[in-house]
Design a protein that fits this description.
ABC transporter involved in vitamin B12 uptake, BtuC
Length: 282
């Protein structure tokens, strides 16, 4: 087993995938807890489709750096989707569905007309081979920025996540910190799309958060557990995809699904044990 792992990571593209994927998984897991608790998790799915549309159009017009072009578009879309979710007459989930499917349709059409179907498929479904050295450097820089900003604003993010009304009453500008969460989410979506694909990148945001909430109760513990679960599931999925010639993104999602099933089982038995202990003490 050890020899197989050494041989596996002797390939440059696997090392690039490991570095980039670990950082993206870490960023997604940190933001995922707040998004799931605030019921904004579908914004991640909507932004992934917007990102695909932006990347497809950028590639179709011959841009040498489609990721850099996609970032401002996805960031603007994140702010727009957040405002729609909070204030629009159109319900948030309907607005997200309208925008995400529209962006996906534009991206597929642009790819088809320009004849870039093969290249665009890596953005739609993900490809570890598609990540080159520049992508890893770009991904690493953005990931470090996301983590630093998250740690810096951690207390405010905690406040607006759990009780936004109370946070506003104490003078916290909740709207600004919601925008910061949306901004960081948009960056995470863009940097992770090349590895996971737009169809699956939102799973990195949702699964680890839900898994950690099944077994932990304190916010900080949930955050730490989510990060550990996300990175571990990514590594297991990456190794499995290489060993069995499976799609990387799909393998990572399947590993997360298995982890969620295990968390549900553990949570169920833990809950029964706690109830039994309370009855015994009474």
């Amino acid at each position: 087993m050890l020899n197989e792992l050494i041989e596996m990571f002797s390939n440059d593209f696997m090392v690039r995938a490991l570095i980039g994927g670990t950082l993206v998984s870490l960023c997604a897991s940190l933001l995922g807890v707040s998004l799931v608790l605030k019921r904004y998790s579908m914004i991640g799915d909507g932004l992934s489709h917007v990102g695909f549309g932006a990347l497809a159009v950028a590639s179709a017009v011959g841009s040498a750096a489609p990721l850099q072009i996609a970032i401002p578009i996805v960031v603007i879309s994140a702010f727009f989707l957040l405002r729609l979710s909070e204030n629009s007459k159109v319900k948030g989930d309907a607005a997200i569905a309208l925008i995400s499917t529209g962006a996906l349709a534009i991206g597929i059409t642009a790819a088809s007309v320009s004849g870039l179907n093969t290249d665009i498929n890596s953005y739609l479904f993900g490809s570890i081979i598609a990540m080159d050295k520049n992508d890893v450097i770009f991904c690493s820089v953005l990931s470090v920025i996301i983590i630093i900003l998250y740690v810096f604003f951690y207390n405010k993010i905690f406040a607006v996540t759990f009780d936004e009304s109370f946070a506003k009453a104490t003078g916290t500008k909740a709207g600004i910190y919601n925008m910061i969460i949306a901004f960081l989410t948009a960056l995470t979506i863009v940097v992770g799309m090349k590895m996971m694909g737009s169809m699956l990148i939102s799973s990195l945001i949702i699964f680890p958060a839900v898994i950690s909430m099944r077994v932990c109760s304190r916010f900080k513990t949930v955050i730490i557990t989510s990060a550990l679960v996300s990175v571990l599931c990514f590594i297991v999925g990456l190794v499995s995809s290489y060993s069995y010639s499976l799609p990387t993104g799909a393998s990572i999602v399947i590993v997360n699904m298995i982890a969620l099933i295990l968390a549900v089982i553990i949570g169920h038995f833990t809950m029964k044990k706690n109830k039994h202990d309370r009855r015994k003490n009474n």
